[in-house]
Amino acid sequence: HAWLTEAGYYFHKPRVGPFMQLSGLSYKVNNGKNQSTYLGGLAWWPQGHRFNIKLGIGRMKMGSDPRRIQVALQTQLYIY
User: Fold this and answer.
1) Which of 3, 45, 62, 63 counts the highest number of beta carbons within 10 A?
2) Do residues 74 and 54 touch, judged by C-beta distance below 8 A?
3) Strands 16-25 and 35-44
4) Of 69, 56, 47, whose CA–CA distance to 6 is shortest?
5) Residues 9-48, buried b or exposed e (16+ Cβ, 10 A)?
6) pLDDT tens-digit readout, 15-69
7) Is this model's pTM higher than 0.85 or not?
8) Residue 52: how many other CB atoms lie within 10 Å
């Protein structure tokens, strides 16, 4: 099973906003590699809600491995 939840706020005039993501992966076969991640960062929306670029940093826990720091740079394009 996989899930992702995201929340954020959009400041209209500068077209930026903070965001927070929580996600997880769990497997039916318990191999000890289930994953949970939380990430926070800043999003830039150069074309309103049609396109964004996000930079975030957070923590990832995978099975019994030590926690890791994750840095993510992503873009999203909405076509409608």
Assistant:
1) 45
2) yes
3) antiparallel
4) 56
5) eeeeeeeebebebebeeeeeeeeeeeeebbbebebebeee
6) 999 999 999 988 877 666 788 999 999 999 998 888 999 999 999 998 777 889 9
7) no
8) 22
